Amino acid sequence: MRLGKVIGTVVSTIKAKGYESRKILLIQPVDPAGIQAGTSFLAIDAVQAGLGDIVLTIEEGNSARQVIQNDDALTVKTVVAAIVDEISY
């Protein structure tokens, strides 16, 4: 799992199998303090996250497919699995 911030959305007219009818978000990895921690990446939204939300992503194909409940979507790698309410450390 990886902590990130939603910084945008992606619009596409043609999508690979598994991405059809799904919202794709642009995620900026952050550390627990909210500081950028890596290169941004794309993820399928499974929890209706919005711009500015801090989220947890799953970046392993099989687990990601289980979150979106589609075992046939072999091209799916990363999914937003949770919206973070609070971080304490």
Question: How would you characterize this protein structure?
Answer:
- This protein is mainly β and 89 residues long.
- It has a single domain, classed as EutN/Ccml (OB fold (Dihydrolipoamide Acetyltransferase, E2P)), CATH 2.40.50.
- It is built from one helix and five strands; from the N terminus they run E-E-E-E-H-E.
- The protein has one helix spanning 61-67, and strands spanning 2-10, 24-29, 41-45, 54-58, 79-83.
- The protein has a five-stranded mixed barrel.
- The relative contact order is 0.29.
Question: How is the topology of this model organized?
Answer:
Elements lengths: L1 E9 L13 E6 L11 E5 L8 E5 L2 H7 L11 E5 L6
Parallel strand pairs: 3-5
Antiparallel strand pairs: 1-2, 1-4, 2-3, 4-5
Number of strands: 5
Bulk shape:
elongated
Return the string of H and E elements.
EEEEHE
Per CATH, the architecture is Beta Barrel
Rg calc: 13 Å
How many H/I helices?
Answer: 1
Order of strands side by side in the largest beta sheet?
1-2-3-5-4
Distance between the termini: 17 Å
CATH homology-level superfamily? EutN/Ccml
**Domains counted in the coordinates: how many?**
1
Poorly predicted sequence stretches spanning 5 or more consecutive residues: none
Helix content range: under 10%
Strand content: 25-35%
CATH fold description: OB fold (Dihydrolipoamide Acetyltransferase, E2P)
